[in-house]
Specification:
Elements: H1 17-27, H2 32-40, H3 44-58, H4 63-70, H5 75-95, H6 100-117, H7 123-132, H8 157-166, H9 171-184, H10 190-201, H11 212-223, H12 238-250, H13 262-274, H14 278-288, H15 307-322
Helix pairs in contact: 1-2, 1-3, 3-5, 4-5, 5-6, 5-7, 6-7, 7-8, 7-9, 9-10, 10-11, 11-12, 11-13, 13-14, 14-15
Length: 324
Amino acid sequence: MAGHGFRPVYHPAGHDHALRNAVQDLRTGRWVAMARLLDETSDWDGWTRRTQVLAAVAAGTDVVHIWRTEQPGSLAATVMHSRVAVERAVRAHRAGHPRTRDLWHEAWTACREAADLAPDDPVPWVGLIALAALDGRQRMAEHRLAPPAPMLPPGPWGLLAEAEKRDPHNREAHHRMLQFVYARRPGPLSEAVNYSHWAASSAPVGSALHALPLYVRVERYRRERGQERALDLHWVAEDAVRDAQRALDTWFLFCATDEASVLDLNHLAHALFGALRFTDAARVFEALGPYYTTLPWAYRTPHPEDRVLAEEVFVRARARCLSG
């Protein structure tokens, strides 16, 4: 596996072969495989993950609209409609599109409708948290509630509570909250650091939230343009090594790695590699198999937008760890 000729694979479905098949059908304009897959998904973790991936693919198509037209009573189609609407609003905001406000309103309405029709589902609430990150000035009252603990900022804590009520420690809900914290204060990352450690501290063993602090560390590295320093001690600092070790000990060693987020696994492999914990990193690379994600590896290159460079960094890091 560490030898020459290895080519990593990027696919949003990762190890989820059933999801990969549904994505393939979705890309050809068909919704039946997606509907069947969601009908067979019985846990909220899988439901949240699969609807997120499917929405990212469907956002540039009218497949979900066709599905809703043909099956107007489908709750899954209603939730997917909210998912796609949120994805489109987030993309428009990122691109500075003039229709962002309209798309945000459509997505907010779609999420509220989905929450009413599927009251046990955490995904509509996750969508509302994602939309809160677009309200950087916290104009809406529900986006500036008092935090549940000291050192945390005001925010959409009521929305997070609704998601948590339905699926405690929902991975995406907390990642969306982290995006909100970034958007609220683009300067120092102290609030994001506090948030990530607060979320991880209350998570049970095996929860992906134990990897959340690794994302904040990568964001700090990106903002400080760490790859430009001749001597980079960012990843071997005591707190960086501690974050990587905690994610390994409290998440990776207890989770079903074939069901884990490929992005989380890449962040852990990246953190352990940077901390010079090559043997531990090798275990994560083995769990990844052929799958990789462009981030966080791209931030170790002089041109983070160049996927080829990111892939090269991943391959070199993987080979170094597995060769040991």
